[in-house]
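[Automated response] Your request has been received and processed.

Submitted sequence:
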Amino acid sequence: MKTAAEPSRTVSTPLKIGAFRRFASAGLISATGTAMAPLALAYSVIEQGGGAGSLGLVLATNTVPTIVFLLMGGLFADRLSRSRLLFLGNVLAAGAQGALAVTVATGHATTMSVAACGFVSGTAASFTVPAAQGAVAQIVPEEHLHQANALLRLPSNAVKVLGPAVGGFVVAASGAAWALAWDAFTFAVAAVLLLGLRLEAPPATPDGVMADLRAGWAGFRSRTWLWSYTAAGTVLVAAWLAGFQLLGPLVAARQYAGARDWGLIQAAFASGLLAGTLVCLRWKPYRLLMVAVVTGGALALPLTAMACGVPLLLVLVAALLAGIGLDVAIVAWNTAFQQHVPRAEQGRMSAFNGVGERLAIPLGYLVTALAAHSWSSRGILLACAGMIALATVLNLCVPDVYRVNRITPSRRSRASDDDREAAQA
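Generated structure:
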């Protein structure tokens, strides 16, 4: 599966592949808009008189489609051209954000119209996420996947450090409509870039959609390392969102200097993500999945630090280390996934993995809301940190975690020779 823009696979770095540069540029441009969108979305609700309930409805309608339609997106990614899916998904998102920007600018926005646009954007994401995972493996040679995944994370993490501040300035100076319009524009530019990839569709299967879905589930279930990592990831995401995103601002208000210190903690975490990408550009671990599991466990550090009420400097260090660990885990996991899952199945496997982790979002918030009536914030933070540590340890007990390692051309060649000798015997 090659691209029309890729005449040769013998390259020394992914940056020498024209299709990869196009794919990475699309991601960078889109990230500049995506970083501003949450703040602009919140203030578009506030500007038309909505409160916490209205904002919750808008956020829910943006999240629910990514759970409901993600499996369908995975099926499509294994049946159709992934570049075409990425193009259509970005066009759909551009239309939704553009329509929202117009309604906000003209003063005709309502909670329902904002929620409707969010629903469309969430639907678009459920088709582009599985397609993007498989597209990288089509574009980049196997030996350069780790570096490619790190390079793709580098600009998006840099934008995460600066984007919210720039978005806040734009919203404060010009209103939410301009930030939403910029988000729509970046989706449109990304769509044009992605259309030029022209990736071939995976080999067609004679079976129907439901048969493909059943085959995908059987493949997911048969790979112990895949479903065990997904299960552990669901726990990690739920505990992290509940402890850091939900309780973090409350703890910062009670134990530290409120919004100012919480902003510093978030900045430290975002800086850690960027630093983690730089680590991945230099370090290519052999035991990919084991590294992903261990470094993901670093998310327990800032939760433990805040629960223990340590000085702010130690919380900042813990948040920085958590960011580094999370980004190393993401790059290692993406590389392991792309190397060990057949390309024709990557859309469905990515969707099954994504559904589990996205279900953690409402689960984490719901459990925290219920526990808050009986437990203190400190107790919940410690429980969340304990869940992350326990999930990490249990995942390390899975033998397959130590078998999913980085594949080099020489290892692939030796494996092929062994297979041929076994067949001849």
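Summary generated for your ticket: The domain at 219-408 is CATH 1.20.1250.20 (Growth Hormone; Chain: A;). The chain has two domains: 16-142+155-202, 219-408.
If you did not submit this request, please reply to this message.
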